[in-house]
Design goal:
Layout lengths: L5 H4 L6 H10 L9 E2 L2 H12 L3 H4 L1 H9 L4 E2 H29 L3 H9 L1 H11 L5
Helix pairs in contact: 6-7, 7-8
Amino acid sequence: MRNLPKEVRLKFTSDIGFVADFLNEGNFESRTKQKIVHIEALCKMMETLTGDSRFTNKIDKLLKMQEGGREVMMCEYIDMLEAKGEARGEDRLTSLLTQLYELGREEDVKLALKDKDARKRLYQEFCPAKA
């Protein structure tokens, strides 16, 4: 399903379209207004593909919304993922900066704050399991 042209992916009108877009674009942006039909299956598929548990952490909340008669749109799911990701990212950055500071690596602290590529290398050095 990787490397499918957008015009082919647009033919997928079910939840599989989310997966196809994610595999090809790395996001769901073109489907934010699309309804999620099979919430649990989609969330589990995304966790399996990415190894990221954020995709399944909100299954219960999403299912309750759906059981209450609400259609769950992808934009709501994205908002939940981003909120969780931002919190995780802040915790991760704080941990990295603390470690660098404690080691007296002030120049690396500055680099981590200013340079995304340098920050990525430092994450690999100090947080290899999460890099």
